[in-house]
Amino acid sequence: MPSTIVTLTLNGTERELIARPSTTLLDALRETFGLMGAKRGCGQGGCGSCTVLLDGRPVVSCLIPVVTVDGSAVETIEGLADGDRLTDVQQAFVDHFATQCGFCTPGMIMSATALLDREPDPTRQDVAEAICGNVCRCTGYEPIITAVLSAAARRRAAARADV
Length: 163
Description:
Layout: E1 4-10, E2 13-19, H1 25-32, E3 51-54, E4 57-60, E5 73-75, H2 88-95, H3 105-118, H4 124-130, H5 142-162
Parallel strand pairs: 1-5
Antiparallel strand pairs: 1-2, 3-4, 3-5
Helix pairs in contact: 2-5, 3-5
């Protein structure tokens, strides 16, 4: 099967690549675009360390053939912060010590961002379900859940202040 030209919007910028049918979205992000935030963990979609947003929904990029995302919007951890200014979710992870080795952190933050984008007032159970596909082997989930709930509270407070 021949290579295919794939066009996508990557972190807000239209990009193009030539991809073989076996190239995953994760491979394209890391090897073509040099974005190393999405991690290569299990390679089977079971750990969530490669989670990115595809048209606003969290997906495990190691299982997505990049040729299937032609015309889509992809957002990675590199696309979240505005220069040195972290997003509310990123800042909450720092404030609540929700990282340790950091390997799972980009995937956790992408899953949490997707949750808060669709549910501004999540319950603890909502957060647990949103990150259930992301495995953390060192920090544990309590600081992560606390960070996501804190980010949600910050977003709600900021929204009230803007009114």
